[in-house]
Amino acid sequence: MLSEDYEKMMLIYLSGLVEGPGFRKTEDLNRLSSRELLQLSQKVDDSALGLFVQLLKGGQTGERLFEKLMGDHEEENRALVDAFFQRYLKVVLSSVQDGEHYNPLEVYMPSHTFDDLAFVQSRQAFFLRQTIETINEYLDNAFKSKHTFGVGDQQLAWEYFWEKVMEK
Asked: Residue 121: is it exposed, middle or buried by C-beta count within 10 angstroms (0-12/13-18/19+)?
């Protein structure tokens, strides 16, 4: 959660990146479509990227804004979403993790999103592109049990994952 001063500073900064009316409060970002929010994220300097995500997550509509940043389930935004998260992983999380092993599924599909079935379903292709080691590790953490899917079992792992999400 950003302090009020940092929030104001970020809103002023973001206002300078767009044409037209700026942003006076976090909720003003709601007027942007997912695509516009993703395009705005591309303009955010690397040094401000972490604060940008905190701003989106911290407002009263934070979860909704962060979902919107994730593409709002729209296939046409997939390239923008993937580019954002690759950049976010490299710029923000790699410095936080400091060499520690990092699982991209934990950022791209956090367990608090499991209630949003449309969102989870929209991440299937990303899930299937991961190595089986990454998938097993993610499932271990998400469901607090050991998973041993074998090489090439990504689809089987997805079916298992989907079934578990549906049970919740």
From this structure: exposed
Q: Read off the amino acid at residue 29.
A: L
Residue 133's region, left for phi above 0, alpha for psi from -120 to 50, else beta, is: alpha
Helix (H) or strand (E) holding 82: helix 78-88
Cα–Cα distance list, 105 to 40, 76, 144 (Å): 24, 20, 15
C-alpha to C-alpha distance for 41 and 45, rounded to whole angstroms: 9
Question: What digits encode the pLDDT tens for the residues 73-121?
Answer: 577 888 888 888 888 877 766 554 444 566 778 877 888 888 888 888 8
**What kind and span of H or E run contains 52?**
helix 49-58
Q: What is the pTM of this model?
A: 0.57
CB 31 within 8 A of CB 18: no
